[in-house]
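Would you be willing to look carefully at the protein I have copied below?

:::
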Amino acid sequence: MVIDYQALGGTSLVVFSDSELFKSLVLDGKESSLNLSFSMELDNSELILGSQKLRSQALELGVPFVLVGADFSLEEISESSGLHQDFSILDLNQSPQNLKISLQVILEDLNRKKEEQNLRSSLIRENDLLQGQVYKKNRELQEQETKRQEKSQALRKASTILRKRIFFLKSLNRAMELSEVVSMVQDEVRKTKGLGGAVLAIPQNGEVRVLYLSGRLVLEKRIKPLPGNQNGDWRQVLANLLNRPIAPLLEFEGAKNRFLLFIEHQVPKSKLRDFILEWKLRMVGLELVLDRFQLEKDLSEAALFWEKTFDGLDEPIGIFDSEQNVVRANQLFDKELLLKVNEEIIRRGSQVFNVESYPIQMARGVAEGSKVVHLSDQSSSYQLKQHIIQTEKIAALGQLAGHIAHELNNPLTGIRSLCQVLLAEESLSESFREDVSEVENAAHRCQKTIKNLLDYSKPHTEDRHVPTDVNEVIGNTLPLLKSLIGKFKHEVNLGEALPKTLADPHMLQQVIFNLVANACQSMESNKKGKVMVSSFFENDQIQIWIQDEGPGVPKKYQQKIFEPFFTTKGEGQGTGLGLSLSLNVIRSFGGNLTLDENYEEGARFVIEMPKWESGD
């Protein structure tokens, strides 16, 4: 009979023995044949008894076994130990009790080994399970680390792209001109392999501004806009404009078609997607910069328009803040006016201004303290008023002159008559005769002066103008001033063969008399000064110069000295009418009377009169 050892899963030990003694001891009186395998319990352990002839199966299957016999050969022991590690040998030459004990010990040892093996197997299984879990966790961790690294790499890449984008946008924002923008865009484009030139096209005022980089120089050309939607023709347009072949174009359009950005490229379509997406994002920053340029341009034009409008006003106007500081003023609002802005009426030379101020109305109400100040020019009204006053004064002066003429003409006539009677006497000495003649001439001049004073209040007419020799008039005038002019050095230079002029000799004499008298009076503080009177013909004009070496006329008075009633003399020393009357007289002759503002050694008055033609 063959034992099915594979079915002995719960068996503790297999015993092989052919000894009848062992069988009797083990079987304890039970009957069994030598070829029958049977089991028995020994202290709760199961024994399988079999013939030694069957032990080869146990050796092949690795089942623990015991060889029981009296004499085993060394060959048998060697064979068993070489084929199996769990075997024992029991010698029958011992008492049955010891034999049982030995079997019990072997069983216990085998059970212990079996438990250890089971424990080791359990531990190995648990270890394998743990290793599997660890391997799985490691795989998960590796996958997570790989994902983390990929994510970190993507974040670093995105961060690098974002930093470059921010740097580009900051650089654009610092640009002050379009040429800088084009240069920056070109530099940024060239950082990508396969990309070429960048061209910026901006529609403006009915034409298109095309900006591009040539070397390091940004050039600009203007072209007519393409008709309709012919943006596809831009490649040909740019080729003609830049005078070179143009690679395929990437076209980026700004919002509301305010500008176009063209970029040449030789990049495969598979790699264009990221670049196009990136530049679509950068177009937002480019739009903001170009919008800023346009806004600055609009504000500049608006400010210039407002400034030109402000300065175009023919009267001073300014804006003041709450602390009376000037915020804005037109060109007519000079410093002299600014210093007097708090007055009700401002005078500047011959100009008179009324000060009018208006609070500034803001969207949320009145801006406290801020105001617009308008200086209303009342000069014409003031001059008209002064002219009326002057006319009334002259009329009063004419009436006064009439009374004076009535009161003085009679005595002067008597003086002249008496002088003429004396001059008729032949017994008079020559010196006495000259004195009487001078008295008679002086009385005559007094009558003439009174008459001139009366005539001044009447319009001058050309009927009284006769061809006049200015040198003769000068010669007749200076002797009348010898008591005044004799205090100073004087010099007379009269031109020879001067043409005559059409004038009233007596009125011209009065003008020269006034100018020479003023020259002498101005040198009261400079007794060593000199009075010079000269005449000459120049530039088709007869000119008379009367100059002195006095203090001259201050700059601030040079524009006022010909105004009626203006005088720098003390009270009671002048009426302010001399120069005004003299100017009117000379102008009535068709000439002019001016102050030479370039003469710095005193004062020089210049009389210019046209020459008289015989056919006039």
